[in-house]
Amino acid sequence: MNISDNLHAIKDSLPGTVKLVAVSKFHPKEAIQEAYSAGQKIFGESRMQEISLKHQQLPEDIEWHFIGHLQTNKVKAIIPYTHTIHSVDSWKLLQEIEKQAANIEKPICCLLEIHIAKEDAKYGLTFDECRKILNEGLHKQLKYAYIGGVMGMATFTDDIEQIRTEFNSLKRFYDELKNDYFPDNDQFSEISMGMSDDYKIAIEEGSTMIRVGSSIFGHREY
């Protein structure tokens, strides 16, 4: 398996409007370095301890994205080297990101995680919970934790039409939020959806950012 070849094969197939987050969680720094040397600059991690260690060992210009479930007590540790947090699933978490980002005066792109799957195990806001947060308008006071878009994960299933329907629901909800709450805000621009098994469907349904791990690095070493 050649990480560089895998990476180029995926990148060459992507439209210019779609960013690739290489999901490097559970993979060694050597694998990330190989992908970096092949031109990849955006990597996704899901555990505070892992991202804390890797950012010290790897090139400074890597754009680290936090893609796992994030507890408020872990926010302070990851803020200094995190560019984007994909998993903002409560107002409380957004407030904590704002507080810690303000302490070091660093903007953090926050994606609102929306629950679109037919699976209880996945995290995320319902459409109505998200509308409620935005209707209250308090997000307009945030100076550092800016809302950059939405993220969602489809059900883990072989039913392609179900996956497509779920991704389509997130794209339509993004359009609603853009129109109702962020019409003049260029920062609200991302739809993070699609992983190794379903990113091609996600792109067809409007994804601007895909999170791909095993198709680049192979299966994880736990």
What attributes does this structure have?
TIM Barrel; alpha/beta; globular; 222 residues; eight-stranded parallel sheet; 18% strand
Calculate the mean pLDDT score and round it.
Answer: 95
Report the CATH superfamily: Alanine racemase
What is the CATH level 1 assignment?
Alpha Beta
Give me the number of helical elements.
Answer: 9
Major β-sheet profile: 8 strands, parallel
Would you report the number of β strands? 8
Would you list the SSEs in sequence order as H and E? HEHEHEHEHEHEHEHEH
Strand content: 15-25%
Question: SS-based structural class?
Answer: alpha/beta
CATH architecture: Alpha-Beta Barrel
Lateral arrangement of strands in the main beta sheet: 7-6-5-4-3-2-1-8
At CATH level 3, the topology is TIM Barrel
N-end to C-end Cα span: 18 Å
Shape: globular
Poorly predicted regions: none
Residue share in helix: 25-40%
Total domain units: 1
> Over all CA atoms, what is the radius of gyration?
17 Å
